[in-house]
Amino acid sequence: MAGTLDLTRFEVLSFDCYGTLIDWEAGIAAVLSPWAAEQGLALDADALLAAYAASEAAVEREQPTARYPDVLAAAFRRTGEALAAPVSEAWAQRLGDSVPDWPAFPDSRGALARLAEHYRLIIVSNVHREGFAASNRRLQGDFAAVITAQDVGAYKPAPNHFEALEAKLAQLGVGREALLHVAQSLFHDHVPARRHGIQSVWINRRRDQDGWGATPEPDGTVAFAAEFHSLAALAEAADAAFA
Fold this sequence. Notes:
This protein is an alpha/beta fold. It contains 10 helices and 6 strands, in the order E-H-H-H-H-H-E-H-E-H-H-E-H-E-E-H. Helix 9 links the parallel strand 4 and strand 5.
């Protein structure tokens, strides 16, 4: 939980979106599960997400400038190859086009509004601009900046997002010490944030579930300043700190 972290000393919160604000696992599973049933695969959603996680990370490494819908489609095809089950172009396209359908976590919209009373908010996301715009119609977030994979030509955990984030802080006249990064994924966010000397808090959305879901296991040193079990809990802690 928050521990001794002084939330009042930060001026800007940067957010991962998918996995933190938007339930991407539910969105991906909504396509993978009916495909698996059609193929006769006796795999539950968690097993499908675990198979998919490595495929998406590999495609993002190999095709850093690909738009996210194309990454999703390619990762789905690669997942099918790993499971020895074909993925048709129709199924691949269905996943590629699914980002606007992915649901927000129930607490995301309200918690973002509360946090915006205390901080400027920035999105740092592995997505294309159009995809985030669709997601933000669910979130209704007031963001000072939106940094996407399409903008930086790479996917986290590559350093590009965090380099762009530091440049945006300079434009806002904010020092790195006044930034707190908020994310669920240890692999995509907390490991590279630590490399950049950026403090972070873990929104542990999968605390009651086994495994890593749609996210690969972190392959570097993990560090975060505090852990919260929801975004609402972070908002409550911020409200209490500023009160």
